[in-house]
Design a protein that fits this description.
It contains seven helices and twelve strands. By secondary structure, the protein is of the alpha/beta class. It has a single domain, classed as TIM Barrel, CATH 3.20.20. The structure holds iron/sulfur cluster.
Length: about 260
């Protein structure tokens, strides 16, 4: 699975690994888990045995497949893009081989005309791996964490300790109030409700709370969607307009020609 994306805050997805494990309530209705089960069912080799049936749904088995064919894909894309890394997994799970993370970093450094966006629910592991492997701070790599409710605000404190050109927080699926949050060192916030079967509702005042805190702390605010079982119908307008703000990286990536 690599190619153009319908996710509003990126242009393309790049999945050098497949498979994950659930870590917190934000994972309950994981889109990647559902999609991986479909790809596994049609025999896609990158997704073999990554999910199993549990009642009337599919859940991760914990198996991680490295897709060697996908590793170099961004180098073939000559037009600069924002690339969401591992939309079908979490690069900083315990079982991802360190050599794979290093390879991903090498490709991101070589494909310097793209912006790579890495999102994890495990910023503790991200911090550990980046330090232990001495991974360079690349100007075209944005590092982020997901926070689904105030119970997980400590992920932001961990992310803040990871050196990065851009740090971002995805408050999606927002399933509870975040409350007061320190966004020092964070450049960008994405806010969105859960979508798909069993979607849990997001309340407007949770969004407003975040929008105001982003404004006060000079964080770019991106409103992704209201979500729900029909996300297209619910739309992505908030207070009568769209909010498609992006961060300004501290270092501007080189163009493809340089
Ligand atoms: S960490 Fe991400 S990919 Fe993994 S189960 Fe949770 S939501 Fe899905």
């Amino acid at each position: 699975m690599a190619g153009l994306s319908e996710i509003e805050w990126t242009d393309a997805t790049w999945n050098p690994i497949a498979g994950c494990t659930m870590i917190s309530p934000g994972c309950t209705n994981c889109y990647a888990m559902r999609m991986a089960a479909r790809l596994q069912a049609i025999g896609h080799p990158a997704y073999s045995d990554v999910t199993r049936k549990s009642g009337n749904r599919a859940v991760w088995t914990g198996k991680i497949n490295v897709n060697d064919k996908a590793i170099a894909v961004p180098l073939k894309w000559r037009t600069p893009k924002k690339v969401f890394v591992n939309s079908m997994s979490d690069l900083f799970q315990d079982n991802v081989p360190l050599e794979l993370v290093i390879k991903v970093w090498d490709v991101m450094a070589a494909a310097h005309w793209h912006i790579f966006q890495i999102l994890t629910k495990r910023p503790d592991n991200m911090l550990k791996v980046v330090k232990e492997a001495n991974l360079p701070t690349l100007p075209n790599v944005w590092l982020g964490t997901s926070v689904e409710s105030g119970k997980f605000n400590s992920r932001v404190s961990l992310l803040r300790r990871v050196p990065a050109a851009v740090r971002f927080v995805s408050f999606e699926p927002l399933i509870g109030r975040v409350g007061k949050i320190n966004l020092t060192g964070i450049h960008w916030a994405i806010v969105g409700g859960e979508s798909g079967p069993g979607a849990r509702p997001m309340e407007a005042d949770w969004v407003e709370d975040l929008r105001i805190q982003c404004r006060k702390q000079a964080v770019a605010f991106f409103f992704k969607q209201w979500g729900g079982t029909n996300k297209k119908a619910a739309g992505r307008k908030y207070r009568g307009r769209t909010w498609d703000n992006f961060p300004k990286p501290s270092v501007v990536p080189l163009s493809a020609a340089e």
